Amino acid sequence: MRDILTLICMITGSLFMLFAAVGVIRMPDLYTRMHAATKVGTVGVTGVMAAVALHFGDLGIVSRAILISLFFLITAPVAAHMIGRSAFFAKTPLWKKTVVNEWPDSPPDDTSSSSSASSSSS
Amino acid sequence: MTGFIQDVAHVMMAVLFLAMLLALYRVIKGPSLPDRVIAIDLLTTVAVGIIALYSIETGYKVFLSAGIALALLAFLGTVALALYIRRGGPP
Prior knowledge:
Chain A is mainly α.
């Protein structure tokens, strides 16, 4: 039973990471590519780590797998947010079918690390 | 049944190598610098998955610590490159 669960988690996680790579290839825009890479990649790593935890069943291994999963769950949105924000301020072109753009012509040109004008609009 | 899991882990490592090749295509092709940063982030994520599957296949539990270190390095590198893009990027 545990072996079947291990196989299911392993195959699901690996296929999710493959779909993340396909999404990075196929998506038309930087922001949609970031969408694919961050969320689907995190789900893939979490599935593979669940497979590792189920396969070994050791206390140290289970805690390490939970640690890696939690680390990805915490840091992947932060990294994606920082890259998306930096790319938007660096005027990376959006997809031409993008529906909403809050700053269409001129985003506020701040090169400082964090300003009040950019954080208040989100 | 124990040998079958190792075989499936081997096949899934091949699938993840295919994913790494696709991400590497985006690293080489990518039109702008943030595209490449995203693809490198995905590349290290897939590398952590490969390390986990390799520890399943060989039975060595020590490789998961390398996975922890690689995840931390991926986050630090992504944040550093994001700050680099934010400060103006390549001249």
